Amino acid sequence: MSLYGQAIPPDTRQILRLDSSKHNMALIDAMNIPTFIEMVDDVKGGCWTDVSAAKAKIELFLLDRGWKIVSRPQDAVATIQISVIGGALTSQFCSTAIQLNYLKYAFVSIEALSNDKMKADTLALMTFLSLGGISSTEKSSSNAQIFKLIQSCLNSILVEIKKAKNQLPEVLNKVVDTVPNS
After folding, report:
1. Of 10, 81, 129, 138, whose CB has the highest number of CB atoms within 10 Å?
2. Pairing state of beta strands 93-109 and 121-138?
3. 153 with 100: CB under 8 angstroms?
4. In this predicted model, what pLDDT tens digit does every residue of 108-160 receive, in sequence order?
5. How many degrees, rounded to 5, is the angle at CA 82 between CA 26 and CA 145?
6. pLDDT digit string (tens) for 14-25?
7. Cβ distance 132 to 99 under 8 Å?
8. pTM of this prediction exceeds 0.90
9. Helix, strand, coil proportions of the chain in percent (round to 5)?
10. Is 107 helix (H, G, I), strand (E, B) or coil?
11. Distance between CA atoms of 78 and 165, rounded to whole angstroms?
């Protein structure tokens, strides 16, 4: 059995990459595309008992802000995945960790198959933003604290979208500056 490798020289062609700007330009259209809310519940010990209610509140929160929320993952172009793990520290206290990921299908260039005459792309589900937090609280207020952290992460996504939209004219000017004269 033999193993062969090939060194591929770096691509020196000038390429405008919207994802290299100060803010994540892939978030600009987030509110306008079908998005599924996925809840991953790995909390033990009765520390998070209202997962369905939390999902309904999150969907309503986003719908009120103009998002296109879908009820089936196969209808989505993007997913907001909310993972909560943790459990009871004692009979009265809980500790949980929350991670919120914004995932979206995007075309990704396959550099190894591309050259000056042809560009190869593939469609992939990519994480464009990931946020999280930790909560340690009394069990009686654990549900409310978890939802508060999730909502804080969602608000951070909305802020990033706003920053990206505000930067769009600057990025578009860079595109115009790099287009050769015809």
Report:
1. 129
2. antiparallel
3. yes
4. 777 766 677 777 777 777 888 888 889 899 999 999 999 999 999 999 888 88
5. 125
6. 444 444 444 455
7. yes
8. no
9. 40, 30, 30
10. strand
11. 18
Question: If you ran DSSP here, which 8-state letter would residue 76 be given?
Answer: -
Cβ-count burial 48-72 (b if 16+ within 10 Å, e if not): beebeebbeebbebbeeeebbbbee
Q: Which of 85, 73, 79 is nearest to 41 (CA)?
A: 85
Cα(170)–Cα(182) distance, rounded to whole angstroms?
22
HSE of 35 in the Cβ direction (CA atoms, 13 Å)? 25
Calculate the alpha carbon distances from 148 to 8, 52, 110, 115 in Å.
Answer: 48, 15, 40, 49
Could you give the CA distance from residue 101 to residue 154 in angstroms, rounded to a whole number? 10
| Spatial distance between the Cα atoms of 59 and 160, rounded to a whole number of angstroms | 19
Residue at 140: amino acid letter? S
User: Where do we find the tokens 């804080």?
Assistant: 152
C-alpha span between 103 and 70 (Å, rounded): 14
Which residue's entry shows tokens 């803010």?
23
